[in-house]
Amino acid sequence: MPSAARRRPSLRQVLIFWYTVLPALGLLVLGLGVHAMVRYHLVRTGELRAFRMVMDQLRDEGGRGGRRRPHAPADLELRARDLAQNMAEPWTLVRIYGPQGQLWGASRAPRLTPVPPEPLWSPSDGLWSGRILEDPERPWQVVAIPLSTRAGPDPVVVVALSWIPSRDLLTALSHYQLLVGSGILLLLVVFSLLLARRLTRPLEGLVAVARRVEAGDLTARAHASGGTEEIVRLGGAIDSMVDRLEQMIAVQRRFVADASHELKTPLTSIGGMAEMLHRGADADPHDRELAIQTIEREVDRMSRLVSDLLALSRAEQETPEPSSAVAVRPLLQETAAYVRARSAHTVELAASELSVWARPDALERVLRNLVDNAVKYSSSGGAIRLAANPVGDRVEIRVEDQGIGISSEDLEHVFERFYRSDPARSRETGGTGLGLPIVAALLASMGGQIRLESTPGKGTTAVISLARTL
After folding, report:
1. Nearest Cα to 464, choosing from 362, 384, 394?
2. pTM of the prediction?
3. Where are the beta strands (DSSP E) in 48-171?
4. Tell me, what's the pLDDT at 428?
5. d(Cα 309, Cα 246) in Å, to the nearest integer?
């Protein structure tokens, strides 16, 4: 693939290129513009100088001046040589031509100044016409000024000004521009190198971190503190992404480890029952029924275990931000109906009209897990109390039971995965040891907390704290 094989320019190369080429083009355009303006000014100044030379002389002779063409004296042909000599200034040459182009008179050529070649003029409808005779040895600025007469074709005064001073000035200006432009361009190259290095060094560090993460090193972090704000924000985003990735991988590894560990017991039981049936236990109806019931019970246990593990894994990967305002009282009423439909326990409800920031489905799962525990660990017909009260800018939801309670030693571990204060009772009730960890993870994903208050033999109270809506 040609596009894949083609090497793309680096950011440093692009920065150096644009920080050098664009200013260089700007300097070139500026230099050409200044050179053109100075040349135009010199040409215009020379033309005005030649026009004034003729106007001043003819005004002295009584001719008309102003913005119109100079008026030729009646005896111009006879006095052409003297007038040309009087018009001439240092380093200038004046010639007066008749209407047919014949030379009427000319000033003496300045010493050491080459005389421009013929012809020196061309007719013009304006006040004058001018041109530059570019010659390496004898450059001239030639200005042809038509004279007006009362009748017949007009004579022309041609003034030739030496272009050597102007040429030397333009040459010196070009050399100066080249010298200054080269210095500025050199400074721009150095500046672009330093700037490109300063801008790309943090990016190279971020690339190195990304390469380490790609290689499996999830401890790599950018910790970007230098460079521009965008680079710092990019480094922070990369660190957050790696943190999230590390968390997700840890959750997946824990899920696999927990699943393999907890599924070992039911799988062993199922394998044992299958082996009994294989060895002939199905001949005895009682043994066959026992084996089938054991297999069904263990399959159901595995199903609940996998379901709880998946729920816990999803809860631990939730973004810790609430999604909407949830009314507490209707949710507690639904929870009370859920308890009454599944047990003989009585339910007391005490909740005012409050709302919290939460996800409705997640908060419903939390409350059902808590009341399931309350039902499992309290005697049939016991009372379960659901209450909600405002506490500052938060709302506390309480689930109270009158069950067996939890010892202070066990309270420190109840939110750990698969922890059971009474393993035998947990097996009887079908518990997986994941109910409270799921509750804690779901609440954490909504910005909430949970704590347990318990007295052995008297009961347990689960207290949920969530942000209150205004």
Report:
1. 394
2. 0.48
3. 92-97, 103-106, 129-133, 140-146, 156-162
4. 52
5. 19
